[in-house]
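Hi there, hope your week has been kind to you so far. Do you reckon you could talk me through the fold, stretch by stretch? I've dropped the whole record in just underneath, so have a look:
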Amino acid sequence: MRLPTPVLLVLLALTVAVLCGLGAWQIQRHQSKLGLVEERAARLAAPPLEAPDALDLPPAEVAWRRVHLVGTWDHSRSMVLANRVRYGIKGEGLVTPLLPASGGAAVLVDRGWYPESERERVRASLDAERQADIVGLGVDASGRTARRTPHGTWTALAPKSMSATEGIPLLSWAVIQGTESGEDNLPPAGGALPVRSYRPFVNTTPHLQYALTWFGIAAALVGVAVARFIIAPRRKPRDATAHQG
């Protein structure tokens, strides 16, 4: 059953409108991500938040800010983030609660990555540190969940889940110890372990490509409609005349 021409035109118009709307939405998403990149880059460039003031801030105000913390390490409560691959090597991440010098709940600190083969050496070196005086990236981990595996390792850094399982009061934000680095795909210089670094926020979603795709499909449909409803009807009389001649 063929649809009447007016109905078909209405459906094509609605489809083109939807496709153009999707393209415009992707452009808006792109602009929003650019603003987010600039905002978080500015937060990273700001002076570090100092303890104990940082300890009273909500997670959203700590996120993407550098944080300076002083206290002691609670090595007895260290937790391992298993199956962490970097540089094509399977490794682990060590998370240790930092007990602030000013008191209160502990802060989970991601102390870095190391290959599984270097576990004993790196853990012995880290466990030898008693006092903590670090600067790292603040992370809003309030909405994260994780589980402890049968091997005693953890699937992710999640203060709420870890606090409930380990029985230790923890703040809902965490810190990635180290400095900013954009070379996550390169091997650690000089073999220094653990690897302590974090990457700045970047937009990895190709919103503009998505927008061009939607606009391209819309343009193709318009082209089909023009060929079907304008060009083709005009050719019929000329073709008929040429055939009669």
